[in-house]
Every structure is written in C-alpha cells, then in structure tokens.
Amino acid sequence: MEKFMISLIKVGIYLRKRTVKIFLTTLFILLLLMLSGCTEKKETQDDNIKTIEAVLQNSLTGSSVELRQILDKESEEKIEALNQYEEKLFKAYFANETSYRDFVNRYGSLVMIQPNSEYYNFKIKNIDYEVVDAKDRVYNFSVEIQFQKEGSEKSETGIVTGQANLTEKHKIEGMLIRTKDFWSSRTKEMKEIRDIYVKDGKVLLMVAPDRSLSAGKPYGYLFHFTVPFETFKGKELAIYAYHKETGEKITGFAPETIKEPSTGYSTLDRFTATFAVPKSGLWRYEVVVDGEFYADVVLAVKE
Fold first, then answer.
1. pTM here?
2. pLDDT, tens digit, 9 for 90 and up, residues 161-180
3. Distance from C-alpha of 127 to C-alpha of 111, rounded to nearest angstrom
4. How far apart are CA 67 and CA 80, in angstroms?
5. Cβ atoms of residues 63 and 113 within 8 Å
C-alpha cells in the first residue's frame, strides 16, 4: 500500500510539472504572437508616417532654388516645368492620379509660396502625429515650422495642422493641410493676404504669383481653377486688379472666350496670365466670368 501511494505521488508530481511546462510553452507562444502583432502594427504605422512626412517636407519647407527658377520662367514653359517638378516631388506618395491631382491643385509645391511674398524661408522643426482611425489609416498631424525673412537674423515659429488617410500600401488617398491659422498670426498685411477663394466650403480658386512680384513690371500669375472645364467652356473670362488703398482698377486679363483647358489638363488647373500693376501694396484680383463675379484673391506687391 505504501509503495502504491508513493507511486501516485510521483505521478502527480510528474503531471504537475508537465502541466506547468505546457502552460509556460503556451504562454511563451502567445507572447511571441502578441509581440509579432505589435511589431507589425508599429512597422505599418511607421511606413504610413514616412509617407506623410515626405509630402509635408516637400510642401512646407519651400521654396527651393529649382522652384524659384521655375516660377521665373515664361507662362507656357512655367506650366510644363512645374508639372514635372511636382510629379518628381509628390506623385509616388499618392494612391492614384485623382488623389495626386487633388493634392497638387490645392497645395503641392506652392502652398508656402503665397502669401510668402516677403521672402521668408521655412524649415520644419517638429511633426507630431495622432492615429485617429487605425482601421482606415487616418492620421492627424501638427507641424511646427520655423520661418525667417531673408536678410534678417530673427526667426519665428508657427503651427500648421492637417489630416491624411492612406491605403494598405501606405499611399495617400486624401490630405488636408490647414495654413490659415499659421498665416493669420503674421503681420497685419500678411493677415489680409489671401491666395485662395472658398465658397460654400469648396475651394474654387488658388493663385500663385511670381515670387518676386513687384510694381511696374510684368509678372506671371498661375491661376488654379478647381471646378470642371464645362464651367468656363465657351464663356468670357476676365481678370481685373483693384488697389486696396486707392481703389485704382486695371485690366490684368482682357475678356477672352475660353475654348481649351490648360495644357496637359482636362480643366483650367494651370491658367496663366502675365501683366503689371502700377503700385506697390495690397491688390485684390477679381475673376469675372461672362461679366459676373466668380472669385477673388488678395496679394501683396512690393516696390
């Protein structure tokens, strides 16, 4: 009987050791799976952030010497050079042609050019990210930008915020960059400058003037119309400029019937006009279609 009891105890000890071993093995496997899952999620998130950061760096640190040279070109030459420049900077990061075109038409390489009419240089100091929706890969971002006027030793900082959503392949489907608050914190004149026209929550027009825009000399303007070409086809389009202080009016682009979209586009994404304004200061540029107001912007012209 005593030997039988000893045998039972030995069996019990063996079973307990085996159970503990199985439990520890199972726990180890589960921990590996959890760590693997976390690592995969972190790597995916990092890949998404790398895409967003590349686009932000290319958009918000302008303007490069190459871009300045492009904006100094003649109208038709400028359009083609700008198209190639933006494709090189941005196209690889977007999910398809539609998402890419939507971005460059609203932002692209020109987002910090105007109202950057006082020769400011920009540098990204820091970017913070927040995952809003992990399943749909939606991210909020906050960008701290350092800016300094050329020739000045003083620098300032400001914040630009926005949001991006990406595909499983880490390509951007849609992106929003909010620069309004950044510019509104600048000087009084800078606050009045507005290179975009919004109606009912939709952007209808963006304008990119020559970076060295000054009074008395003809300079090229790049008008980004965001609506379908049918809005303008067969209609007369004109552009007038009004001096904010004196009310003086000039004709920048005489009424002309629109027959073709911008070269290489299906819309008026890259509509150009070259003309001079006689005075420095703030000018309101008004786009008129068939004699009726369509949109306007306010730009600063140097001496």
1. 0.57
2. 999 999 999 999 999 998 87
3. 17
4. 12
5. yes
